[in-house]
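Incident log, structure service

09:12 report received: a user says their structure output differs between two submissions of the same chain.
09:20 pulled the input from the user's history:
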Amino acid sequence: MTDRHVFPPLAMYAEGLACGRAGMALCQDLNFSVLSGQCLLLRGPNGTGKTTLLLTLAGIVPPLAGSWTAQGPQDEPAPVHYCGHRNAIKPRLTVLENLLFWRQVNGATGVSAEAALVEVGLGGLEDLDAGYLSAGQGRRLALARLRVSLRPLWLLDEPTAALDVEGHGLVTRLIEGHLRMGGLVIVATHDPIHLSHPAPVQTLTLENRA
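09:34 re-ran on a clean worker, output below:
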């Protein structure tokens, strides 16, 4: 993975942000700021709104209150990679066809699909129907989308789910490489993520509403 700084300056700010579903707030009064080259870890028990917060930041779920913004130069919206806890894989398509689809949708601005599959440990499985992948291999295929299309803002929901020890290392390497390129990462996870990259890592802990 390149060490080049390829993304323009980016900032995400949230002030008094409340997120929830069907009008019921799961988390509220959130305030944070994350800049290029920085990572924000979302922690907290199940049901405290980590996934809903990521969906809100991705523009999929509207906020209940407060405001947030993710802006690049000239206040332009930042292109986002949202990688949810479901892998969004078509089982009847091959591993390569799945990744080529996402590369076309998100833009062919990163490495080739073949190179990305090798990087995530799926080299040699290009022609296999994705439905035959194990849970961990499916997660690796979902993560490969991050490499075939360069987008400065990553929103990752439990990226290490179903992965083995080496897979946890893969996630760490992907995040560190993205930060070195000037990207910004917000990740919800129960697993420890230890980054050797010197950029600041913040932690935001969400709590159950009593």
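09:41 both user submissions now match this output. Likely a transient worker issue. Closing.
09:42 reviewer note: The chain has two domains: 1-79+153-210, 85-151. The two ends are 44 Å apart (CA to CA).
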